[in-house]
Design a protein that fits this description.
The chain has about 110 residues and is an all-alpha fold. Helices cover about 100% and strands about 0% of the residues.
Length: about 110
C-alpha cells in the first residue's frame, strides 16, 4: 500500500513538474516569439541591404561601362572630324577666300 501511495505521490510530482514547465514555456513563449521575430527581421533587413548594395554596385558598373562606350564613340567622332578638317581645310579656305573676293565684284 505504501508503494502505491509513494507511486501516486511521485506521479503527482511529475505531473506538477510538467505543469510548471508548461507554465514557464507559456510565459516565455511571447519572449521567444518576439526574439525570433526580431532575429528574422534583422536577417531580412541584412538580406535587403546586401541586395541593395549589389544592385547599386551593378548599376554603377553598368553606368561606368556605358560612359566608357560613349567616350570611345565620342573620341572616334572627334578623330573623324579632325581627319575631315585636315583633308579639306585647304579647299575650304580657298572656297571662303574665293567667295569673299567674288562677292564685292558681283554686286
Amino acid at each position: 500500500m505504501d508503494s502505491i501511495l509513494y507511486r501516486i505521490i511521485e506521479i503527482e510530482r511529475e505531473a506538477q513538474s510538467i505543469s510548471d514547465e508548461a507554465a514557464r514555456a507559456k510565459k516565455n513563449l511571447p519572449k521567444e516569439v518576439e526574439a525570433e521575430k526580431k532575429r528574422l527581421e534583422e536577417e531580412a533587413q541584412a538580406d535587403l541591404d546586401a541586395r541593395v548594395m549589389k544592385f547599386a554596385k551593378d548599376e554603377a558598373e553598368d553606368e561606368e561601362k556605358r560612359l566608357e562606350e560613349i567616350t570611345v564613340r565620342h573620341e572616334a567622332h572627334l578623330e573623324a572630324i579632325r581627319e575631315l578638317f585636315e583633308k579639306n581645310s585647304a579647299a575650304w579656305e580657298n572656297e571662303i577666300y574665293e567667295s569673299i573676293i567674288k562677292t564685292p565684284s558681283e554686286g
